[in-house]
């Protein structure tokens, strides 16, 4: 790892100031993705701005028909939160399947969502639940936030503060993990929300995406059988030593079926 | 150079580190607590697991500076000063839950966190799933699972003494 300066601000304003003053500075929360990347020297930040001392980024709370999760909420906190389990059980289940216990004790929702790894779990929930990303500057709809592999609508120096999840009528998540790395080969998050049925697919493509055909089928009939016959086009999906694009396309249908079954 | 102040196994130290110094490097190289191992260095194998403020974490994937002000427990901090082993260490010995022993410190630290967070008790399946973040290259999982199952009975006070492996 190359060396870097380290700052630990205690307010969003101070963190933003540090980030805007230095274009090569990067924020860090749990560091479960960033630190491995730095070890591989894939990244050379001049400074790391540790967000963990910022109280405004903490907390999980119910606000009317929304669940608001602060950027610093660790995966293990979300998985065990009574608020999350009561409002959106599928989200608690998803959080409990990220990495392993030790990774979940460090990794945060803000880090996962703003990193937008194609194999990350949270982006599928954010997109399918029609969540809103709250930053220090503005509110961004999930449909506008994710912009392909490791790319989001966040501007340099802009900080993700919280994610607001409208509470759905039903939601379910299923994924196929790579047996060695345990990263998602293909996953599906399905949700019956106020804005309609939404299906988000992660792991299979260069970024999380919505599956319109499945959304239509589930809106007409909410059952695993409704999506069983829908074939995902393999064009543009990831193909690598772990599985071809055709294999992942096949998994998309299987995972969507399982996700609907899990949602009940 | 930046300084980090942390309490390790009950003893508070202030140490000079670089920004990039990992928690495991601070423990092993600055504090000479070499019981915590580095296996993969990619947060997969779990040989480096320690407890930070009561939670098990991979110390190869945490900066020393991120542990400023934290309370850290390593494998060296488990036994009593008179040498009496922690029930989990005793169970690993009784059940022969180690072969080469390289993964053992991390296994023990993860196992203690797992048992402490599940006071209602863990089934064999839950123990196996709970060890997802720890790899044993000797593939000695079977006895590790047996040891954890036996240790949880003592840790939760359901038995006063460890069940012998011969039972």
List keywords for this structure.
heterodimer; A: 264 residues; alpha+beta; Uridine Diphospho-n-acetylenolpyruvylglucosamine Reductase, domain 3; Enolase-like, domain 1; 2 domains; five-stranded antiparallel sheet; four-stranded antiparallel sheet; 12 helices; 34% helix; 23% strand; globular; B: 167 residues; Ubiquitin-like (UB roll); DNA polymerase, domain 1; five-stranded mixed sheet; 5 helices; 31% helix; CO_DH_flav_C (chain A); FAD-bd_PCMH_sub2 (chain A); oxidoreductase (chain A); flavoprotein (chain A)
Describe the structure.
The complex is a heterodimer of chains A (264) and B (167). Chain A is built from 12 helices and 12 strands. Chain A is α+β, with helices and mostly antiparallel strands. Chain A folds into 2 domains: 5-166, Uridine Diphospho-n-acetylenolpyruvylglucosamine Reductase, domain 3; 170-263, 2-Layer Sandwich (Enolase-like, domain 1). In chain A, the strands form 3 sheets. Chain A has a 5-stranded antiparallel beta sheet with strand order 4-5-8-6-7. A 4-stranded antiparallel beta sheet of chain A has the order 9-10-11-12, with helices on both faces. Chain A has a 3-stranded parallel beta sheet with strand order 1-3-2, covered by helices on one side. In chain A, strand 4 (60-63) and strand 5 (66-70) form a beta hairpin. Chain B is of the alpha+beta class and 167 residues long. Chain B folds into 2 domains: 3-77, Ubiquitin-like (UB roll); 87-155, DNA polymerase, domain 1, CATH 1.10.150. Chain B has helices spanning 23-30, 87-94, 104-116, 124-130, 141-155, and strands spanning 3-8, 11-16, 49-52, 55-58, 71-73. The longest helix of chain B has 15 residues, at 141-155. The mean pLDDT of chain B is 97. The interface between A and B is medium-sized, with 27 and 26 residues. Chain B: This is (2Fe-2S)-binding protein.
Largest sheet features of chain B: 5 strands, mixed
Q: What is the CATH third-level topology name of the largest domain in chain B?
A: Ubiquitin-like (UB roll)
Number of domains of chain A: 2
| CATH architecture grouping of the largest domain in chain B | Roll
Percent in strands of chain A: 15-25%
Structural class of chain A: alpha+beta
- Mean pLDDT figure of chain B: 97
Helicity range of chain B = 25-40%
Query: Would you tell me the structural class of the helices and strands of chain B?
Result: alpha+beta
Shape of chain B: globular
Output the radius of gyration of chain A: 18 Å
Rounded radius of gyration of chain B (Å)? 16 Å
Distance between the termini of chain B: 56 Å
Shape of chain A: globular
The neighbouring-strand order within the major sheet of chain B is 2-1-5-3-4
Number of structural domains of chain B: 2
Pfam families (chain B): Fer2 (PF00111), Fer2_2 (PF01799)
Protein name (chain B): (2Fe-2S)-binding protein
InterPro entries (chain B): 2Fe-2S-bd, 2Fe-2S-bd_dom_sf, 2Fe-2S_ferredoxin-like_sf, 2Fe-2S_ferredoxin-type, Beta-grasp_dom_sf, Diverse_Oxidoreductases
Keywords (chain B): 2Fe-2S, Iron, Iron-sulfur, Metal-binding, Oxidoreductase
């Amino acid at each position: 790892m190359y060396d870097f300066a380290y700052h630990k601000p205690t307010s969003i304003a101070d963190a933003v100031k540090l980030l805007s003053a230095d274009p090569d500075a990067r924020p860090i929360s749990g560091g479960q993705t960033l630190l491995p990347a730095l070890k591989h020297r894939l990244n050379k930040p001049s400074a790391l701005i540790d967000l963990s001392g910022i109280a405004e980024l903490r907390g999980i709370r119910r606000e009317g028909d929304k669940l608001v999760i602060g950027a610093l909420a660790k995966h293990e906190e979300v998985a065990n939160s009574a608020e999350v389990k009561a409002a959106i059980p599928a989200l608690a289940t998803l959080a409990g399947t990220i990495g392993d216990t030790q990774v979940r004790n460090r990794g945060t929702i803000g880090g996962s969502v703003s990193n937008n790894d194609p194999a990350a779990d949270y982006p599928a929930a954010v997109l399918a639940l029609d969540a809103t990303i709250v930053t220090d500057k503005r509110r961004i709809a999930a449909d506008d936030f994710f912009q392909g592999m490791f790319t989001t609508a966040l501007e340099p120096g802009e900080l993700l503060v919280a994610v607001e999840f409208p509470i759905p009528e039903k939601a379910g998540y299923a994924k196929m993990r790579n047996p060695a790395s345990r990263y998602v080969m293909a996953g599906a998050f399905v949700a019956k929300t106020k804005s309609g049925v939404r299906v988000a697919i992660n792991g299979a493509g260069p970024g999380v995406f919505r599956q319109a055909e499945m959304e239509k089928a589930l809106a007409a009939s909410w059952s695993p059988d409704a999506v069983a016959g829908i074939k995902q086009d393999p064009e543009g999906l990831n193909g690598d030593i772990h599985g071809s694009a055709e294999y992942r396309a096949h998994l998309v249908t299987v995972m969507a079926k399982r996700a609907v079954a899990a949602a009940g | 150079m930046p300084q980090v102040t942390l309490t390790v196994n009950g003893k508070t130290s202030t140490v000079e580190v670089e920004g990039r110094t990992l928690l495991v490097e601070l423990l092993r190289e600055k504090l000479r607590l070499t019981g915590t191992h580095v296996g993969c260095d990619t947060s997969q194998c779990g040989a480096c697991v320690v407890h930070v403020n009561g939670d098990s974490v991979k110390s190869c994937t945490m900066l020393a500076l991120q542990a400023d002000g934290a309370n850290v427990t390593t494998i060296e901090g488990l036994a009593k000063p008179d040498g009496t082993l922690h029930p989990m260490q005793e169970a690993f010995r009784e059940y022969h839950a180690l072969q080469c022993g390289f993964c053992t410190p991390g296994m023990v630290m993860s196992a203690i966190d797992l048992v402490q967070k599940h006071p209602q008790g863990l089934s064999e399946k839950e123990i196996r799933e709970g060890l997802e973040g720890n790899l044993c290259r000797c593939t000695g999982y079977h006895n590790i699972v047996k040891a954890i199952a036996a240790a949880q009975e003592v840790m939760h006070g359901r038995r006063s003494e460890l069940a012998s492996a011969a039972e």
